[in-house]
Amino acid sequence: HLLLRWPALRVMESHDGGPQCELISGTFALMLQGFLGCTALSSLVVKRHLEKPKRELEIFMMDIAKQAVGAGFVHFANIFVSIALTKSQEIKGDKCAMYFMNFFIDCTVGVAVVYWLQYGMRAMWMKICGEGSSVEKIGYYGAGDKEDQRLERYWIWAKQSSIFLAALAINKFFVAAWLKFMYMQFNQLGNIIFGPVQPYPNVELVIVMVACPCFLTMLQMWLFDHFLKDHSIKANPLLASGNST
């Protein structure tokens, strides 16, 4: 009861008729989302530069494409879940604060959950299809430059990406259920964290979309990249000759 008396916990109630942080309205919000995505994906270029030996450029681009598709799905899923939760509850919440809760769980507990989900689904796929299936080595897409071989590589990429996306979707379902079950607690926590800037929607949006997520997003993508790439020498046919680009 003492916490409920704290002004920060009632800030949304006092701003029902005033400006509130919005996730998808306006050019400013869209520009921030684009900036965050570009910054996070660019960090993977730095990671490749530090690799010894480096992945072949095409393999690296295919690995990045997995994350780009996955990150886009999770980002818009987070927006949908955040808006749906704050609008469906008796006590309306801060959409941006709820987005941050979504995002923070994804970047911490969610990374481990996605890893084990992908591991389990990959094991099930191999049990059904047998050894030597296209998902046996995550990040290995086959070799050869002939047209049919390149098409096969993209098909293998699609199969591996489908497992990653399925793991992300299941994780998002668990996170959304957790947020809904403990909505009051997460809503209060969001008001405690963002209460001082809630009267300034654009400031809050910058904090939620750029300042806080920037490091966490890059860390998450580096961790995902670690278990989405192939660590064997087959991942890069140029390694055998000691060359890389």
Offer a quick outline of the entry.
The protein has helices at residues 11-14, 27-50, 57-88, 95-107, 109-129, 147-181, 183-194, 201-211, 213-228. With 245 residues, the chain is an all-alpha fold. Mean pLDDT is 79; it is low at 1-15 and 234-245.
Annotation, overall tally of beta strands: 0
Mean pLDDT: 79
Shape: elongated
Please describe the biggest sheet, giving its number of strands, its sense, and whether it closes into a barrel. Answer: none
Please provide a written account of the structure.
By secondary structure, the chain is mainly alpha-helical. It is 69% helix and 0% strand. It contains 9 helices and no strands. α2 crosses α9 (213-228) and α5 (109-129) packs across α6 (147-181). The protein is elongated, with a radius of gyration of 21 Å. Residues 1-15 and 234-245 have low confidence and may be disordered.
List keywords for this structure.
single chain, disordered N terminus, 245 residues, mainly alpha, disordered C terminus
